[in-house]
Structures are given as C-alpha cells and as structure tokens.
Here is the input.
Amino acid sequence: MLKKNIQKEPLRLAVFGMGSNMFKTFEFAMQKMGEGLATIVNEDSAEAAVFNLDDPQAKAKLEKYRQHYPEHTAIVLSVNDPELADCIFVKKPFTVEGLLDAIRKIKRKSLDEKSRKNASSMSAVGLPAVRKDKKEKDRLTPVTPVIDFQTEKNKDRKFCGIEEDVDLSNPEARKNIYYSLEESLQSRLDAAWQRARQNNNVVIVSIKFEDDLETITLLPRINKVITALDDKKLSYLCTVPVYCLELKLFRQSTEKSRELEEHALKSQRGESLESLFWKVALWTSRGRVPVGTDLNSPMVLRHWPNFTRLHITPGAFSIAALLNDKPMSLTFLISILSIPQRYVFAFYSSAQALDLIERVEVKTENEVNISRADHVNPHRKLFGRIMQKLKRTG
Amino acid sequence: MSASFAASAEKQCYKIIFTGPVGAGKTTAITSLSDEPAVTTDEQASDMTQQRKQTTTVAMDYGVMNLGGDERIHLYGTPGQERFNFMWDILVEGGIGLILLLDNTRSNPFQDLQFFLDAFNDFIENNKVIIGITFMDVQPSPSLQNYHQKLAELKCKVPVFEVDSREQEDVATLVQALLYSHDPWLGV
Here is the structure.
C-alpha cells in the first residue's frame, strides 16, 4: 500500500540554471508528456533537482545544493558528461524519455529509502510494545545502566556538543547537524599531514590567532605530532573558522626532518597522530557531521579505533561493535541504539578523520535484520556488573 | 547436588582467559585487574625463556574480580611456553572471551598472532577475542595498522589495541571491548 502511494506521488523537482525559454519548454514537457512522474516546485520543498550544467552559474549552484541537501539526487543536463558522483547525467540535447528515465531512477531510490525508514521505524516502534512485558523488559535493559547519558552530557559536551536530537526527515532541522569541514583547522591539519606524508618530511604548521603564535609539528615517519598547545587552547581553535586564523605551512628539509625526529624520539616528546586528529575531529564536530555526509547510505568501520589511546565518547564501544560487524547507515545506527544523535555523529566524524569509515553498497534488507531485541545476550546482567566493576576501579 | 549449589557453581565458572607468548604481560594484566593477590606459578626460567625474562609461568596465572554478592569473574592466564599448551583446552572451558596479548618486541609477532589464533580457533569460533599489543613504546613496528592488515589477510575481524599491561585502565579497556563485542547494547 505504502509502496503504491509513494509510486503514485509525483517527484518534487527543483530546477536550476534554465533560462525562461528552456524552463517553459521543460515545464511543458513535464506537464504534457511527464506521465505525472514529477512536478516542479521551489528548492525548499523539493526532493530532487535538475541542473542545466551548461549554465555558467550552475556548477556553483549544484555544489551549494549538494551541501544543503546531501541526500537529494541531482539530474544534470549537459553536452558533456561532467562525471559527478551521485548525480544522474542526461546528455543534451535530451529527449523527454531520457529525462523520464532519470526521474524514474530517483523515484526508485527514494522508494527504497522510504521503505527502509518505514521498516526501521516499525522496529523501533515495536520495542515499547515488547517492553510491556516485564520479563521482556528485564531482558532488554541492563540491570544497572552502565552509561548514564544525563551524567555524560555535561562531561562530554566539549567533545560531543549539547545539541538535542533533531528530526532528521526535516530539511530545516537537519541543517543543525552539519558543519563545514572545509572551514575548519581540522581540514588544514589534514592537508598538512598529507603533504608531510607525500615527502616523508616534517611539516610545521604555524597558527597565528589574535596575538598568539603557535605551532604544530607533524612528523610523518614516526607518526608523531609535537605542539605546545594544550587541549584547552587547541579545542578552542577548532571552533574558530579557519579564515580567522593565519595559517602557514613550513616544509622541512630531509636533513632537518631526521634531526627533529631523532630529537622527538630521544626526548619522548609528542603524541600520536591518531590521538591528536581524533581529538581535533571531536572538537570540530561537537556532535555534528561534515556537510555532505549521507546519513542514509550504509557504511562500515574498517576496524575498531585504538581506544586505549583515544578519547572514548559515550556509546563509542556500542557504535564500534555494531559498525564493525555489519554495514549500516547513521540513521539506522541511531534508531537501533536509541542513544543521542550527537554521540553517533561525534564518533562518525572522528572515525572518518582517521579514515576508518568505508561506504559500502549493500541491500537495505541487511540493515533491517538487526535489532536490539534480536541481540539479547544471555549474559547481559553479568556483563553489566563487570562494567560497573571496571568503572569503579578505573 | 542441590539446585542452589548447582546455580552457585554455575555462577562461579565464568572466566576471562589471557593468552599470548612468553613475556607478553599476561601475569601483569591479571594482577592489574584482580581484587585479590593474583596466584602465579612463576618459576625461575631455565630454557630459552631466560633470554626474555627471569621467571616464567609454568602452570597458569589466576586472579579474580569480585562483582558483589557471591559473583566473581575468574581471570586465567595460560602458560606462555608452548610445551604447556595441553592445558589450554581445559583452561578455556566456560570462558566468556579470550584476550590475546602479543609482545611487539619479539622477533616475529605476526607468527605469534597466527599461532595463537590457530591454537584457540575452536574457542574463538564460538566466542570473542580481543588483541592487545604490548611494548609498542619500545618497538613501534609493526604498527597497529600492520596488525589490521595481517588480520584482514587471515580474514579475522578482531579489535586490536595498544596496551601497557601495567595500566589497569588499558586492561579494563580490553575487557570492555570484549563485553561490547558480545553485546553492543550493553548499557545503552
């Protein structure tokens, strides 16, 4: 029933980069020959967009559109294939049938996503019904909560922010969960690290902010970072837009690099690159995800982060265990774990910074097969008590 | 045997097993978690082991975590030397998981990795294993990334962490990872 209704509903399309003549032709074609597949609406209420990419402004508009609506698919009309990922290319001069094929593809994708959302919300809705049974309730919840999210809230606000959950299906509300990675110190440090690794030589990043000048020395061969910046100051710099900072990179010669590495090893100075980048990503993200993150596409965690040497955010063990085991999307992960979104987003952003996230193509059925109720471990009470014990002694 | 005694006996059989080669830090790890002085069966090393440490565990290590009431988790360390591996099958019975500690300063830690994964293969198939790499501060290579690559070659998906077995927090993190591998919904 749901499937049929969705199929019948016309796709709401926004149109960009078309002059008035082209737009009228396009509108006429959709009305007369579009088989009711799509309707043209303004950007705010659209589910997808069509871009005439040969318009000089269109590329910039497309980029902006994809930042604001990372989950929307765009149809690009152009004489040459721009080879853009996640866009459907229709070659100009286009035929109505070619255009309708592209719209059908988007509708199929949208249908898959809506079915998946529906299935996962059904499983989430199903949980309270299960909880009515006391025995079942005992089975589903730990005897003593190991993670008290209220207590954790204040403790980890610097790393995970304080944002309350938002309605992820609401485009306006969803804007709050994104941050611009491009405008952050994190992106510049990452670029500096890439450069250091290319030549295996040391790169020093100098950061001038207001009257302070600080440096971060990246030593790629020994995987270390040296800085005099303390966590308080560095975390603050992570919140400052990068254009407010005066950043310079100084690439060191091979000779100088070896000298600095030797000195770092002898003096046992510096922290691991992973540890610094993990923290920087958490401070930058503060419980959000980079603009462009697709919340609905499945991903896996390549391997568990090195938790003995990294800051562990609330829920990190649960997220790592699930995401390393089976591919799933962020929205699905949030729904099955029932933890605040910001903890999942913080983990994702820091894991992404260490290149631990891999997007995968899987059938959506794999996701909906996992639910909390299916994974009731017979030893949960025992494990809960061990966790309590570790917390007390730790 | 009365029902309550049977239940109590059953309660007492939960174990976490620590394994790994000679000198990887099993005794130290158990000592750092145990509520009671760990029982070790260390003897003066008289063979090749002497090159790595003065004493070595010849039977097993034993420690205990008291969880309250009469509930306890037993921590068992396998003897490091291979000639005692006949004991391993007995030790893992009733184990809720395996913590494999590997010494990064040994000549071929990957060989150790493969050896122990093979040796405990039956147990691992039905249980969870967590790997802790010790002495990475002394010998940073192979890196954790190298271990992950090796495990991928072996088609093994196992969490790997850098560990200082003297640090209680490090060892506790291994145990937490073990528990969450069993039950990701633990505590949420």
Observations:
- The domain at 3-182 of chain B is CATH 3.40.50.300 (Rossmann fold).
